[in-house]
Structure formats: structure tokens, C-alpha cells
Specification:
By secondary structure, this protein is mostly helical. The chain contains 21 helices and no strands. It comes from Gilvimarinus gilvus.
């Protein structure tokens, strides 16, 4: 006998899939596209452009240091939570106002970048990339806070929102990246960056289409101001300097104090170290992947088709699968499985290094790598979301995300030097990237036990 709709809806897997019937997830997807696109400008496209221009592997790796701003954006993240930009925030709302303004600045930088020759003006090119990275890292603070505020802390909606954010990120990264590599030889990289500016304009339209979240953020921040006024033995009505002191204390201190207060020092430090270490191996691989593809013998067209277009489709599919599994079995367990799989997938690249540029192996590697990356990333983003508070969601998520970016960018910027030190032994390089995940998995076991103990107490 077939199940009735009511009975079917009680099935755990159908309940997990039902969480995607929420229009707010469309907003999360659109802003996710905006978050992923700048990585095309200063990531894969830049690596391809520099490689084709004859820039050395070491310099390509060093230019990846501009991503360090993603690791330190927590330093100004409290300002994104607290400061309302004149006029634009009044017209669009707090979160959308910040996002739209920073997209406009990225549009200007992209136009200048399109007219810069890396061989003669490498320093200027690096400065423009740094400007784009800074704007992108700042508007990511607002985008992440937007997602947290528009969805809330519903245990089933959080993985679904994380999945849609990731799908949006990869859509904003892979589709333009595919078009760039597919047309780079026809129009040249300067031409590619010229029409990349058009994409930024499309992203600005996306920002105008989404709805501003309704939150009690301001009320919670005002409560914190009253609490700090008591701690500092002052009253805001006493004068301008008292108000400034209280405002700065709440803006700078409270987001981080609240995180440690809610989790305890031991668990909080373990979480921070885990976030720092978890994706270092993936970052080493990602930073050198385009260089590896070209050196091993794959063409720009093959890279565009498999790494960008096929990889994008697989990421969407596997992200949905991964989020459903995380809803069903839990975030910590999903992270551990994803971490082990992520390390194993790096060995597929070592296989390519040993046997050469076979398209069937390239496709198999893309399938495995995208499954593992999507699965672990959904759980990772969901965990960070769960750890944020309501009053300072932007600053606290930025603190956690920036630590992950610090591990990925500060260490992976030397990935080119590591390949050179290994005399171009790509197979051994990818084996080392697989081993890098082990410390993070050990910490995850400790965190899982502490969180279980905390829930039982």
C-alpha cells in the first residue's frame, strides 16, 4: 500500500528535503553568488592569466597572499555589525547597504584590472587584487550575517541555508570561471576581465532583489551597551565621551567575549584551532591546481569544461546530498566523514601526476574531489553558523571564518615554493596535502565529545 502524503512527510529523508521549500533560501543563493565571484577575479582566473603571461610559480603563489585579508576581516567585522552607512543603509537596509556599496567598489577595481598588464605593472595588479580582496572579505561579513539573520537557528534550516550559500558561491565562482577559461585564448585575459565587470553589475542587481532580514539585533546591542555602561561605572547620558567609550567597548570587546562566555575557554580555543587547521590541505591543493593542470598537459578548454563547468554541476548535486545527510545525522559526524574523504580525494591528483593527462582520470578526480569538498564544506559552514550569537552574528562568524581563511591563505601562499622544493614532484606534493587534515580530525573528536558532554550537563 502506498503512503499518504502525511505519512510520507514523516520519513526522515523527506523531512530533510522538505526544508528546501523556503523562499528565503533563494535570497541566500543570490548573495552566495556574489560571495563566490571575487574568487574568480583574484583566484583561478588570475592564476591562469599570470601563468599564460610567463609569471613564475613562486610569484603566482605569492600573489595568493592577498587572500590574507579574508583571514583578518574579523578585525573590522564589528564595524559592519554596528555602523550604518549614510543614505545607502537607510534606502536598502543595514546588511544590503553594506553589500551594495562594496560591490560598487569592486566594480571600479575590476575595470582598472582589465586594463593592467601583469608583465609591466605587476605591482599595480597586486594592489588592485588586494583592493578587490578587501572589499570582498568585507562584504562577505555582511553576507554571512544576512544568511544567519534571515534563517535563524532552526536546526534543520541551518544546513539547508548553508547548502544554498555554498551552491550560490560555486555558481558565482564556476560559471564565470568556465566562461573565462573557455574564451581566454579568443579574447585575451584583458578582454575576459572587461566583461567580468558586467558580472559585478549583475550581482548588484541581485542585492537589490533580496529582502532585508528583520532581527532584534539593535535591541540586543543596546542591552549590551547598558551592561557595559554599568561595568565601566558610567552612563551614556553623562556626555559624548562616555557614549563613545561604551560604544567602542561593545563594538570591539563584546562580540569576542560573548563567544568565549557561551562556549567556555577550553572548548572555544579548541574550536578556533580546529577552524584554523581543518582545510589547510585543501587550500594547498586549490592554490596550485590550475598551475598543475597546465604543467601536466591539460588545455584551457579542458580546464574550463571539467574543472569549472562539470565541477560546478557536481558541486550543486553533492552539496544538496551533503546537507541532507548532515540534517539527518548531525554536523560533527558529517564533518569527520567529510574530512577523511577530503584527504583521500587529494590522492586522486597524485594519481594524475603519476600517469599523465588522461581525460577520464581528470573527470573521475573532479567527481571525487567535488563530492568530498561539498560534503565537508556544508558541515563546516553549518558548524560556524551554530556557534554565532544573535547580537553580533557578523563579527562572530567573521572571527571563525577568518581563522579558517588564515590557515588556508597564510600557509598556502607558500605552496609554489613547496612544489619547487620538491623539484616539481607533484605526486608527493598531493600526498602531503592529504596528511595535513589529520590534526584537524583529532581536534574534531575532542570538540564532539565536549559538545556532547555540554548538552548532557
Amino acid at each position: 500500500m502506498s503512503q499518504s502524503p502525511t505519512q510520507a512527510s514523516q520519513h526522515p529523508w523527506l523531512q530533510a528535503l522538505d526544508n528546501y521549500r523556503d523562499w528565503r533560501l533563494l535570497y541566500v543563493f543570490l548573495l552566495g553568488c556574489s560571495s563566490g565571484f571575487p574568487f574568480v577575479l583574484i583566484g583561478s582566473n588570475l592564476s591562469g592569466w599570470l601563468t599564460d603571461s610567463g609569471i613564475s610559480r613562486s610569484q603566482v603563489g605569492l600573489l595568493g597572499a592577498v587572500f590574507v585579508v579574508y583571514a583578518i576581516n574579523f578585525m573590522w567585522a564589528p564595524l559592519v555589525d554596528r555602523v550604518r552607512l549614510p543614505l545607502v543603509c537607510k534606502l536598502l537596509g543595514h546588511r544590503r547597504g553594506w553589500i551594495f556599496t562594496l560591490q560598487a567598489l569592486m566594480l571600479l577595481a575590476t575595470i582598472f584590472l582589465a586594463n593592467t598588464d601583469p608583465l609591466t605593472h605587476l605591482g599595480l595588479l597586486a594592489a588592485l587584487c588586494l583592493a578587490i580582496a578587501t572589499c570582498s572579505a568585507t562584504h562577505d561579513i555582511a553576507i554571512d550575517a544576512y544568511r544567519i539573520e534571515i534563517i535563524g537557528k532552526d536546526s534543520h534550516r541551518v544546513p539547508a541555508a548553508s547548502a544554498m550559500s555554498i551552491i550560490g558561491w560555486w555558481t558565482g565562482y564556476s560559471l564565470p570561471g568556465y566562461l573565462a577559461f573557455a574564451n581566454a585564448e579568443a579574447v585575451g585575459w584583458s578582454g575576459v576581465y572587461g566583461w567580468m565587470a558586467v558580472f559585478v553589475g549583475v550581482l548588484m542587481v541581485f542585492t537589490l532583489l533580496v529582502r532585508e532580514p528583520e532581527t532584534d539585533r539593535q535591541a540586543l546591542q543596546q542591552e549590551a551597551e547598558l551592561r557595559y555602561a554599568g561595568m565601566l561605572h558610567t552612563r551614556p547620558e553623562k556626555g559624548i565621551w562616555s557614549r563613545i567609550l561604551v560604544w567602542l567597548s561593545v563594538t570591539i570587546v563584546e562580540p569576542f567575549a560573548d563567544f568565549f562566555r557561551r562556549n567556555g575557554w577550553q572548548l572555544a580555543l579548541a574550536i578556533l584551532l580546529f577552524v584554523f587547521l581543518f582545510k589547510i590541505g585543501e587550500a594547498f591543493l586549490g592554490r596550485m591546481s590550475i598551475v598543475f593542470y597546465r604543467e601536466v598537459g591539460f588545455s584551457n578548454e579542458q580546464i574550463a569544461h571539467y574543472s569549472k563547468l562539470v565541477g560546478w554541476g557536481l558541486t550543486i548535486l553533492f552539496t544538496l546530498v551533503g546537507s541532507t545527510i548532515n540534517i539527518r545525522y548531525g554536523i560533527v559526524r558529517g564533518l569527520f566523514i567529510g574530512g577523511v574523504a577530503m584527504a583521500a580525494s587529494n590522492l586522486m591528483f597524485a594519481w594524475i601526476a603519476l600517469v599523465g593527462p588522461h581525460e577520464w582520470l581528470f573527470l573521475a578526480t573532479i567527481v571525487v574531489d567535488n563530492f568530498c569538498a561539498a560534503f565537508s564544506t556544508v558541515a563546516f559552514v553549518s558548524l560556524l553558523t551554530w556557534l554565532t550569537g544573535k547580537a553580533f552574528s557578523g563579527a562572530q562568524y567573521a572571527l571563525l571564518a577568518s581563522l579558517g581563511n588564515l590557515g588556508r591563505t597564510s600557509m598556502s601562499s607558500g605552496s609554489g615554493y613547496l612544489v619547487d622544493a620538491l623539484n616539481g614532484n607533484w605526486a608527493f606534493f598531493f600526498v602531503l596535502t592529504a596528511v595535513m587534515v589529520i590534526p584537524g580530525l583529532v581536534l574534531l573528536i575532542f570538540i564532539g565529545r565536549k559538545m556532547t558532554q555540554g548538552s548532557q550537563d
